[in-house]
Design goal:
By secondary structure, the chain is of the alpha+beta class. It contains twelve helices and 14 strands. It folds into two domains: about 1-170, no CATH class; about 180-385, no CATH class. Strand 9 (about 190-195) and strand 10 (about 200) form a beta hairpin. Helix 1 packs across helix 3, helix 2 packs antiparallel against helix 3 (about 75-95) and helix 6 crosses helix 10 (about 310-320). The two termini are about 40 Å apart.
């Protein structure tokens, strides 16, 4: 069983849009009020306010005269917003995310409806307090014998409505096993290079609309904030951003699906993309960062536009769906600087050097293709013997576990995988 979500465009009627906008506004209000109370309680009294306390507060807020409009929308999205806030705090306390931010109206918003707040009938969605089905543009149908468990209605900054239907897919999606294995090296000039010698160009959607985006941003900066002209300029800018995002995401989905369908095993690097796009990147963070240290932030926009993190994320869950194997190797493995022919590692390889000759065996290498070959070799070593690929030396997982159980015993370390 696989949990999936299908996203569709939504074109609500004026009555439905009015109800949905009021629901999203109430969700944003409840979220912000609960966040303010939890923050204030901690700063003033060092007390932690949890989900149960905020849920009880919601009942009290509905009885207040100035907040009686909360009772005119479905209570389920309001309750779900408090659960989302609790999840945000949980991620913050476990150092998986930053401190929760207040929701802003200009960013649109969303409302989540569980099974008690909607009805699925004859392939149509009926939300609570809405008598007519949602006019969804059905680009595809749900699988047979599948019904949605959760429905999320979203309004993005460009004023586009969408609805996501989450359901449990009981179908067997595993593809026919193949023998082909490939290593993938991500880049900027070439989005990916594979170990079989294939290079796929980077479409660079941001650069294609950069001039238009820049003019639109300048136009927005000249408008009086809060005026009608400001809102028109903001909406125009948001639509350009939405076009860039949609194009990039569509291309990424097609690329990752192609890799999954054509290969049984895919090996990638576990890059710290967030660290690479920071303004003050630590040169010791990644091998790529060490090479780019003097001008790293100049590449931040290009790295973000390349969508490396999303490529790996999609490969990960699609490999689980379709019965493929995805292997991640250590980000410190010197894939670009290692000769794939003899294993020699050069001391330094600047980023602008795209081709180089090995001083040991005189083999000529394309930087990206050579890196992808090394990534595949290291990934297969990790898969077979469980070894790490640290440049300073490798220890098998089994040996590491034996050392933890018996720290005083003499355990022979395995040799580095090259």
């Amino acid at each position: 069983m696989v949990e999936k979500a299908y996203k569709f465009r939504l074109y609500p009627t004026p009555e439905q849009e009015n109800l949905l906008r009021r629901t999203i506004g109430c969700v944003r209000l409840i979220y912000n009020k609960a966040l303010a109370i939890r923050t204030q309680a901690w700063h003033e009294k060092q007390e932690r306010v949890g989900y149960k306390q905020t849920s009880a507060m919601l009942t009290t807020w509905k009885k207040q005269e100035n907040l009686d409009f909360l009772s005119k929308v479905s209570s389920v999205p309001l309750q779900q917003s408090l659960r989302h806030l609790q999840t945000a705090f949980t991620n913050f306390f476990h150092a998986r995310a930053l401190y929760p931010n207040f929701k802003k109206k200009r960013n649109g918003g969303s409302a989540e409806f569980t099974k008690s707040a909607f009805k699925w009938k004859d392939g149509q969605v009926y939300l609570a307090k809405c008598s007519e089905p949602l006019p969804i543009r059905w680009s595809r149908q749900l699988p047979p014998d599948c019904s949605p468990t959760t429905i999320t209605v979203k309004l993005d900054p460009s004023n586009r409505w969408s609805v996501s239907l989450r359901f449990n897919d009981n179908r067997d999606l595993k593809l026919k096993p193949l023998k082909k294995r490939v290593g993938v090296d991500v880049g900027i000039s070439s989005l990916i290079a594979t170990s079989d010698g294939t290079k796929i160009n980077n479409p660079k959607y941001f650069n294609k609309l950069y001039k238009k985006l820049r003019l639109s941003q300048k136009s927005l900066s000249r408008k009086t904030k809060g005026s009608n002209n400001y809102q028109k300029a903001r909406l125009k800018l948001a639509r350009i951003h939405a076009k860039i995002k949609d194009s990039r995401l569509d291309y990424t989905h097609k690329l990752t699906t192609q890799l999954i369908r054509e290969n049984q095993t895919i090996v990638v690097e576990d890059l710290a993309v967030k660290n690479m796009v920071k303004k003050r990147c630590d040169p010791a963070t990644t091998p790529v960062a060490r090479e780019r240290a003097p001008r790293d932030h100049k590449l931040a926009r290009a790295i973000s536009d390349a969508n490396w993190g999303e490529i790996v994320r999609q490969l990960e869950y699609k490999a689980q769906w379709y019965g493929r194997e995805l292997i991640k190797i250590d980000r410190y493995f010197p894939s670009s600087k290692r000769c794939s022919n003899c294993g020699y590692v050069v001391d330094k390889l600047l980023l602008d050097i795209r081709e180089w000759d090995c001083p040991e065996c005189a083999a000529h290498h394309d930087r990206d293709i050579n890196a992808s070959i090394n990534i595949l070799a290291a990934g297969l070593a990790v898969s077979v013997c469980g070894a790490t690929v640290r440049p300073e030396g490798s220890k098998s997982r089994r040996a590491g576990a034996m050392k933890q159980k018996a720290p005083n015993s003499d355990v022979k370390e395995s040799r580095a995988v090259s």
